[in-house]
Design a protein that fits this description.
The complex is a heterodimer. By secondary structure, chain A is α/β, with parallel strands linked by helices. Chain A is 45% helix and 11% strand. Chain A folds into two domains: 14-187, 3-Layer(aba) Sandwich (Rossmann fold), CATH 3.40.50.1980; 193-300, 3-Layer(aba) Sandwich (Rossmann fold), CATH 3.40.50.1980. In chain A, α3 packs across α4 and α6 packs parallel to α10. The longest helix of chain A is centred in the middle third of the chain and has 25 residues, at 167-191. Chain B is 82% helix and 0% strand. The longest helix of chain B has 30 residues, at 230-259. Classes of the chains: A alpha/beta, B mainly alpha.
């Protein structure tokens, strides 16, 4: 009898756990980059299960195909990615192979963050002599913290449409996030005053949104045309320019090869700064808030001795 | 362990692609080994890549059939050139193939100096990823493989036609490298043929196919369970199976050879 009771208790507890797990993950979401994984967690809390295809140290333009990626995309209710052709090399293939009707392009389960931000770097004329300029503009919107809130709001609307039952909860999470984010934006505005008009050299055109936010002055880019390795003539040109118009800092992203930037730093004596670019790019960048904290702190170290 | 990825609908098309690649590469690999021209596949794939860059410079769509024609044409021209060098400078054919590989690769860099989009197309051609393959994409490879095998065995190409060998090789490599990438093409060509070289006749062909097929099957399953890139895991699985086979059967047959 006691045994039977124990067994029954176990069954009841088991059923409760299963039921609560069912309730826990109402939405199953696949994100392409860690910044969107973090944002989904902010809005969805424990009602969503979320997975990021890339880490902060991977180039989001290219990834290696693994069976688990197809298995994951097959089960999800929604994909949240950057868009603007950033993942064009692999996301369409992955979605086609997974054949999941919920996440087909233009459907409600297909969310591209760049549709909700003001896109910079959209070419006036598309000419292949300009280098790797995408018709859709520069996709790296996450380097400006002001771009996060509009994306968060649109994401909340979309998640509510897919899971109306938890809509109120998502809205409350968004309100809470919005309040904390505005506070953080105020803090960053004060914090980054010394960075205004800071002359920088970048490796790749990954930072135009950050430049726009901080009003940095980009003196030059190691890649003359995006995606095309610098020629010796262009390197000589940069070295010359550094004499007349010296930059204060050379910037590169954690996932990029640091050697070209290192070379320029050694040639000119201008300090080199590695920025996280996204969550996980550095040990300090653990979520959306610490991503910008760390980015600005690393830049500030170069202007304040 | 990642059991949910162990799904036939995920791994099935990739496995079939592997079998199709093996069907032609195992017999081709025997001839390649015999002639000591191991790196010919890298050279031909790289030359086919030049065709892709040229097509891009003409402004042709990356997915279009013109790009395929352009790639095969470049590969065939490369094959004819290598056939000529083999006749003219037979003893130094291997280094000449090596040189054609670096020349084709660097010519690609020069042609792409102002065109990174072309670079992406080239990358797609050379590092095809086996997991992205769908059943529909397998038809062209199946037709090419069947035609190549028919010609190969009907005319006994390895014995009779040197030019025929180069032409068939160029067509096969261009078709398969786009689906599975250059690492798997190289592994499928060399590993089964090399590790079974002690065995004779039909037995050799049978075991070479078996090592290749098991390499793809176990490699795909392992990559699903361990959550690792499939192409790389298949190459390693095939190499381990090949070495095991050579250790167990190769040494035996060597000993029996000595006894005779």
């Amino acid at each position: 009898m006691i045994l039977l009771n124990k067994l029954r208790n176990k069954l009841v507890i088991g059923a409760l756990i299963m039921a609560s797990q069912g309730a826990m993950a109402n939405l199953n979401i696949f994100t392409c980059e860690p910044e969107w994984e973090s944002l989904v967690k902010e809005i969805g809390g424990d009602k969503v299960e979320v997975f990021s295809a890339t880490t902060g140290l991977q180039d989001p333009h290219h990834i290696q195909a693994r069976p688990s990626l197809i298995a994951k995309v097959r089960k999800v209710d929604m994909v949240v990615c950057t868009g603007a052709e950033l993942e064009i090399g692999w996301l369409p293939l992955l979605i086609r192979r997974a054949a999941n009707p919920k996440i087909q392009e233009a459907g409600p389960g297909y969310f591209m963050a760049t549709q909700y931000a003001r896109i910079l770097g959209r070419p006036k004329t598309l000419d292949r002599s300009q280098g790797d300029v995408h018709a859709a503009g520069n996709p790296h919107i996450q380097t400006n913290p002001k771009n996060i809130l509009p994306v968060a709001k649109a994401l909340t609307v979309r998640m509510t449409a897919l899971d109306p039952e938890n809509g109120q909860l998502y809205q409350n999470n968004l309100d809470d996030f919005e309040q904390r984010w505005k506070q953080a934006l105020d803090g960053w505005k004060k914090l980054t005053q010394p960075l205004k008009n800071l002359p920088i050299v970048v490796y790749h055109a990954s930072w135009i949104y950050l430049e726009d936010y901080l009003k940095l002055e980009r003196v030059d880019s190691l890649e003359d045309k995006p995606g095309v390795p610098p020629t010796s003539g262009h390197l000589a040109e940069i070295l010359n320019k550094m004499k007349t118009h010296p930059a204060k800092v050379i910037i590169y992203a954690a996932y990029q090869d640091g050697r070209p930037a290192q070379w320029l730093s050694e040639q000119t004596g201008i300090p080199l700064v590695k920025l996280p670019f996204t969550i996980g790019g550095t040990d300090e960048a653990k979520d959306l808030f610490s991503l910008y904290d760390d980015t600005f702190n690393r830049l500030l170290k170069t202007v304040t001795p | 362990m990642n059991w949910e990825a162990l799904d036939l609908s995920i791994l099935g098309p990739a496995f079939l692609a592997g079998l199709l690649v093996l069907s032609t590469h195992v017999p081709l690999g025997r001839t390649v080994l015999q002639r000591g021209i191991i790196f010919i596949d890298l050279a031909i794939a790289q030359i086919a890549g030049l065709g892709v860059i040229a097509a891009d410079n003409f402004g042709w769509e990356a997915e279009g059939w013109q790009v395929q024609i352009s790639a095969v044409t470049a590969a065939l021209l490369g094959a004819i050139l290598l056939h000529w060098t083999e006749r003219r400078f037979e003893k130094i054919q291997e280094p000449l193939i090596g040189i054609s590989f670096v020349l084709a690769a660097t010519m690609g860099l020069i042609m792409l100096a102002n065109n990174p989009h072309g670079g992406e197309h080239l990358k797609e051609l050379l590092v095809g990823q086996i997991l992205w393959v769908s059943y529909a994409q397998l038809w062209p490879l199946a037709i090419v493989s069947a035609a190549v095998l028919a010609v190969w065995f009907y005319f006994d190409v390895p014995k009779l036609h040197r030019l025929g060998f180069y032409v068939l090789f160029a067509i096969t490599v261009t078709a398969s490298v786009q689906l599975v990438g250059v690492y798997l093409v190289f592994a499928s060509l060399i590993i089964p043929a090399l590790t079974t070289r002690m065995s004779l006749g039909h037995k050799r062909l049978l075991f070479a196919y078996l090592i290749g097929a098991l390499g793809y099957a176990i490699g795909l399953a392992a990559s699903a369970l361990l959550d690792l890139p499939s192409g790389a895991v298949i190459v390693w699985t095939m190499a381990i199976l090949g070495i095991l086979y050579a250790l167990i059967f190769g040494i035996n047959s060597q000993q029996t050879e000595v006894k005779h």
